[in-house]
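Hi F.,

I've been meaning to write this up properly since the lab meeting, where we talked about keeping a consistent format for the predictions we share between groups. The idea is simple: the sequence comes first, exactly as it goes in, then the C-alpha cells exactly as they come out, then a line or two of notes. No screenshots and no reformatting. I'm using this chain as the first example so we have something concrete to point to.
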Amino acid sequence: MHPVQFFTAVCYDWIKLLDSEKAKQIVVEALRFRVKNGQVKICAFVVMPNHIHLIWRVQNGFKLEEVQRDFLKFTAREILLLIRNERGERGLEELFVGLKDRKYQVWKRNSMSIDLIHDWFFKQKFEYLHANPCQPHWQLCVRPEDYYYSSARFYEEGVEDFDFLCHHDEI
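Output, unedited:
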C-alpha cells in the first residue's frame, strides 16, 4: 500500500495561474476524476492562487509517479487552453519556456511529495494546508472554513461541496 502523502504543486515562477474560479475548477474536476477512477483517496486539499496542497493516498494498482504526472499534465493542458481562450496567445508569454518537450510551462518541475508516516506530521500538514488561505500574505478569508476551494468546511461544518473527499480516518 502506498503511504499517505502531502503533495504540493506550485505554478511556474509562482505566477497566480489559479486565481480565477475557472482555473480552480479545473483542479477540482481533475481531482474528482482521479478519485472516481479509483486512483486516489483525498482527505484534504486547498487550491491557492499559485499553488495547491493535497493530502492523498495513491491506491494499489496505480503508480504514484504516473498519477502525479497525469494529474499535472491534464491540469496544465486545461489551464493553458483556458488562458489561450480568455487572453489569446499573448496571455501565454510569461509561461514560455521553449523546451524540447513543451513550449509553455504551468507547474514548476519537481512537485513536492512527502510521506506522512507519523500522526503528528500528518496533523501538522493537515492544519497548515487548511490555514493557508488565512495567512497574512494571502488574506483570502478569516476562518479556514470560509474559503471555498478547500476541505476545511468538510471538517468544520460537515459540508462536502466537491464529491471526492473522504474523512482523514478513512484514507
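Notes:
The chain has a mean pLDDT of 96.
The chain has one domain: 5-170.

If this format works for you, I'll send the rest the same way.

G.
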